[in-house]
Amino acid sequence: MDDTEPDHGPHALTPITSSTHAPSHRSISSSVPRTDGAATVVEEGSSASRPALQHIDPTTDTTDPTPFAHIPLKLASLVDPKNLQALESLGGVTALIQGLGTNRTKGLSKRALGAQDSDEKEQEPSEKAYSGTLQDRQRVYGHNVLPTRASKSLWMFMWLAFKDRVLILLSVAAVVSLALGLYQDLGTPPTPTACPDGSMNCTEPSVDWVEGVAIVVAILIVVIVGSVNDWQKEKQFRKLNEKKEDRGVKVIRHGQETIINIKDVLVGDVCLLEPGEIIPCDGVFLNGHNVLCDESGATGESDAIKKFSYEECLEESRSLGKGEHGKKDCFIVSGSKVLEGVGQYVVIAVGTKSFNGRIMMALQGDTEDTPLQSKLNDLAELIAKLGSLAGLILFAALMIRFFVQLKTDPGRTANEKAMAFVQILIIAVTLIVVAVPEGLPLAVTLALAFATKRMTKQNLLVRVLGSCETMANANVICTDKTGTLTQNTMTVVAGSVGIHAKFVQNLSKNQERSHIGDGEGAEVKHKHRDDFAVDMEGLNDYMSEPLQRVFNESIAVNSTAFEDKEPDSDNIVFVGSKTESALLRFAKDLKWAGYRGVREEAETVQVIPFSSERKAMGVVVKLPNGKYRFYIKGASETLAKKCMRVVDVKRPSDGSVGHASGDEIPTSELTQLDRENVDRTIIFYANQMLRTIAVCYRDFETWSDDVPYDQLANNLTLIAICGIEDPLRPGVREAVAECQNAGVAVKMCTGDNVLTARSIATQCGIYTKGGIIMEGPTFRQLSTEDRREIVPRLQVLARSSPEDKQILVNTLKDLGEVVGVTGDGTNDGPALKSAHVGFSMGIAGTEVAKEASDIILMDDNFSSIVSAIMWGRCVNDAVRKFLQFQISVNITAVIVTFVTAVASATETSALTAVQLLWINIIMDTFAALALATDPATPALLKRKPDRKTAPLFSVDMWKMIIGQSTYQTIIILVFHFAGNAIFGYHGLGLFQMNKAEAELGTLVFNAFVFCQIFNSINCRRIDNHLNVFGGILNNYYFIVITLLEIGIQILIVFVGGSAFQVTSMNGRDWGISIALGFVSLPLGALIRLIPNGPCERLFITLRLMPDPNKLPVVNPVAEEEWNSAVQLVRDKLNTFSTIRGARLRGSSFVGKSRTARLQQAGIFPSSLMTMVPTLIGASVGAGGWAARPGSLSDPAGTDPSRSSAALFNGQIQIHPETDKTDPFYRRWGSHTE
């Protein structure tokens, strides 16, 4: 390959922009990455954090590679672009491995890893590279870590919070007020005022400067409280990200397979390739079988790329003519995905020098709003506009009065006029501060932060913040079976060696699993009278040594699992496929030869890796006699049909055990009766929730390379059928019931056979009356119309491929459902991405699945999904509680301030600027903390989910907002304007009148604050339930903040006189103000008793709520498909985001939401069948059932379903208790016959 040929390797930025790993990219200038490999902290926004992704120039690398032979960037340049000629110039793979001081088969030695007491028997080569220490290797080639972005400091968050333009305007006004106040107090004579004896010899206290200081202090409190909250949230998400990025990698070190942390991978390590793995480092492929990699995330190449050894690639390259391009590839690109096959590669670049590392360094994206934050933008924008309009109108009205008074009151000094103007400006700006709801994003942030932190404690790692909110509206969960509904601890508990020997673990306690005729009909028992039961511990007594050896080899050689220590407990466990681990454990328990020795002795000539299409895996080995044997294991119902012979294991007679002599394994041809016995056995085990695995072999006289699977997998000899148990997880049935009660339908998608799937679905409560079961191949062949008709009733999709799951998810989304999906495999990635919320398995999940998911189930437990639904609803409810409270305060504060200021002859409001700022703190920061921290409770699962298009304000919320605002506005205005008449303050002297008016103003302020305190309790519920104190003792934040508000209010009244313009009150006034506030609670109960129907019609007429019966004129999904960029720009440029929200844009570690706005549901016209409820309340059961004759319809004599034969033959099944008058049954019932 010369330099003029096109580059077939990783490219620069063009294909990278299509990757799903980052929403935006920036191309910027930079230099070569660091060569010391140390992890660094990169300041946000610095050029060092955004290097340009360009092809590497090795000549710029000045690193001294001693004692190794290759400089770091020279090795990194082999992959970018892929350059076989450069690898050849290094001397090929052999010279590469020697230059890195490693071994092709054993990996790095103990000495190279820093072990002082190396006891390796083989002498290491004398090359200089083998003398290199661990420190030398890390110094030259670096660590497999990326520089971490430095989070913003607390001072930066304070600066961002203070950059709020309204706060800046208020600060300027406060400084001017302070300056004029100081001048008034210090530079002018004191103003005379009335004394208690009625004379005018007293002077007013010099406290004009206090208001300016109080406003400055209030601004500082707002800034500090908000910035501290954001800073703590930033730290929390940083910890979550660090936990998310941690994973294990399989490597070979000093000849042993082991799992190490991804950060510990070194250049020179020999790493293993397995299906589902995201490759952590760049490397050169050494050997393997049918390794296919998806490099689309790195190169943009959509086709899977098969990997070949360097020798094969070199041979092809030398055979090419001029202008021809080779197709074989020996380079492993970091960040790509292994689709299938197994193999090994040597690492040549890690960390920032690897291809994926340089991509990650080049990615720089801005934090997007979560869906709920975006949904609140329009509301916040409207409130900000109305509040600003009210402030401008108030300012204009007061300025008109000010200009009029310049003529009518010419006696005022210039200082008094300036003070009057500043007071007008302050009250108008304060009104805007109170009206603009900066607490809305804070409430969302706090609710999400608390929910995320608590979800982590419940084994839910949130990767995408917006998924918490989305789960609140989820109404369908598509779940896997293995490891999610079940425990994923596979064990061989029953099986059949040959046809007749039925072995069972603990036979004395599990007689029902022996399947030798107990409970069956006499006819069936008579036909299979040769079957006999064996305890698994004594199975060796019934098998000849050659059969034991073949059985053991078929398990050990045809497997990739291995033994290793658990990192936490140091126990020896099998690592790898759960099914393979169960079989290896089965062989180990029977004390057969160890799997390591069997594998080393076997001469493998071809490997058939497992794939979801063929549901089997195999290996061809050369026997000592020169012949060849093909071992294969896989889905029993598939392989049993390909078997022509079976090993003979007979019932012992007269107490003797029959063993075959010599090395021959007695076999016999499968008869029709034998095949029926096999089918009965498979169905019998499947109905007991056992996964059935067939173990087979086939002998060949001669061999040719790369024989296709279809030619190998026929004329097989059946060794055994193993029943592997994966028991249900504790609490799964209850969790499914909770989902169904919460209005969330659960659908199971599994690769297991339909009978196992039906059995588990029935046990879990997923398969219920009115539901259907279908196989994946049948499902994918349906037309679009039929699929939309069936999907609402589909409860189990068996033998499904990942593509079937994606089709199911997309169909549900087309029908307007909010879908959550679980997945653990590499091929589940598309379905996880397609779903609104993707759940991956933290234990069994591949890296591809985790990267594609939104939430990781750290315990792989379905019950955790229920917790996610509960917390999602908790987040949405928390924001709505806060919204209900704040809008009530906003309306009252704006009306009271506007009316009283305009009506006042001195342009003063009933609530001063400092008082309004204190109220603003109560309703923004304190209320956000109190109402957004209610913990999730099971009661949240007792209601149906909201639609995605549901308005933010429900009927109950609007009733409460209007009722409370009306009450508060009336009592404040009444006491402000009629207080003197109510308390008889007329006819008093000047001093007494001033004191009485001060007490009345304090009463009004105190009553308003206590109205908010009691209303915050009232707002803990947003439905029509009367108990507002439910669970209040579980929210310590609410209790502490409420007590803090009461304590501060008492202090303000007693000692804050000058700053807040209040005075001390007597017991009567305290009682009145508290009583007026307490009325909010019984008033709230009365409001909840008002019927919703008439109120909803009124609100729709007033356009406070959208009409739910009005059909859209535009398909929202179609609109967003072409206009998503415009929607995003509109989000970023709205008024609220421009004027407010500097803190909202401050976080750099909040997880990326997939879209900037909540996607509105697409509405598709569907057939009448989809409107039929999923669960039919049938009054007529499926009585009158009678077993059909035949081996499949009546496999064990106890199967209550009429449709076993239909399922086994690939048809659909409707639940047998479904009402026959159900329109769906009429339409599809014939398909089950």
TrEMBL record:
GO function terms (MF aspect): ATP binding; ATP hydrolysis activity; metal ion binding; P-type calcium transporter activity
Biased composition (Low complexity): 57-67
GO terms (BP aspect): intracellular calcium ion homeostasis
Topology of the protein relative to the lipid bilayer: Multi-pass membrane protein
Polar residues composition-biased segments: 15-33
Domain Cation-transporting P-type ATPase N-terminal: 89-182
Pfam families on file: Cation_ATPase, Cation_ATPase_C, Cation_ATPase_N, E1-E2_ATPase
EC number: 7.2.2.10
InterPro entries: ATPase_P-typ_cation-transptr_C (IPR006068), ATPase_P-typ_cation-transptr_N (IPR004014), ATPase_P-typ_cyto_dom_N (IPR023299), ATPase_P-typ_P_site (IPR018303), ATPase_P-typ_TM_dom_sf (IPR023298), ATPase_P-typ_transduc_dom_A_sf (IPR008250), ATPase_P-type_domA (IPR059000), HAD-like_sf (IPR036412)
Catalytic activity, reaction form: Ca(2+)(in) + ATP + H2O = Ca(2+)(out) + ADP + phosphate + H(+)
Ranges of biased composition (kind: Basic and acidic residues): 1-10
Source taxon at top rank: Eukaryota
Signal peptide: none
UniProt keyword annotation of Calcium present: yes
Residues annotated as transmembrane: 166-183, 209-229, 382-404, 424-451, 887-905, 917-941, 967-988, 1000-1017, 1037-1060, 1072-1090
Compartments in which it is found: Membrane; Vacuole membrane
Chain segments carrying region Disordered: 1-68, 107-131
UniProt xrefs under PANTHER family: CALCIUM-TRANSPORTING ATPASE, CATION TRANSPORTING ATPASE
Record-linked NCBIfam families: ATPase-IIB_Ca, ATPase_P-type
Family note: Belongs to the cation transport ATPase (P-type) (TC 3.A.3) family.
Role according to the record: Catalyzes the hydrolysis of ATP coupled with the transport of calcium.
Protein name, per record: Calcium-transporting ATPase
Source organism per UniProt: Botryobasidium botryosum (strain FD-172 SS1)
Taxonomic placement: Eukaryota, Fungi, Dikarya, Basidiomycota, Agaricomycotina
